[in-house]
């Protein structure tokens, strides 16, 4: 969910983890560079918009369920 927001996080917040079991990583984008979502992130964005967007308070749960069911390139499960 964070990746689809694009390059909106400041340097001092880039190292945080949004939730347990997440596979997030930090990719710096410097002034003058253009940020583009990866193919995987574009698919995650589509899934988020279709299944979770607009469900305040339930977005993460709905997104995780939709990823498990519809993502053709799922990330490895957290251990």
What order do the helices and strands come in, and which of them pair?
Blueprint: H1 39-51, H2 59-70
Helix pairs in contact: 1-2
Verbal overview:
With 79 residues, this protein is mainly α. The chain has one domain (3-70). The protein contains two helices and no strands. The protein has helices at 39-51, 59-70. Helix 1 crosses helix 2. The two termini are 20 Å apart.
Multimeric organization:
single chain
Number of helical segments?
Answer: 2
Radius of gyration: 13 Å
Q: List low-confidence stretches.
A: none
Structural class category:
mainly alpha
- Strand percent estimate: under 5%
Question: What keyword list fits this structure?
Answer:
79 residues, 2 helices, mainly alpha, globular, 32% helix
In short:
Helices cover 32% and strands 0% of the residues. It has 2 helices and no strands. The chain has helices at residues 39-51, 59-70.
């Amino acid at each position: 969910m964070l990746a689809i927001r694009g390059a909106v996080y400041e340097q001092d917040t880039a190292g945080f983890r949004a939730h347990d079991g997440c596979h997030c990583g930090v990719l710096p984008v410097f002034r003058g560079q253009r940020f583009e979502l990866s193919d995987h992130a574009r698919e995650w964005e589509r899934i988020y918009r279709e299944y979770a967007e607009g469900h305040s308070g339930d977005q993460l749960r709905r997104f995780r369920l939709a990823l498990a069911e519809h993502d053709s390139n799922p990330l490895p499960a957290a251990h």
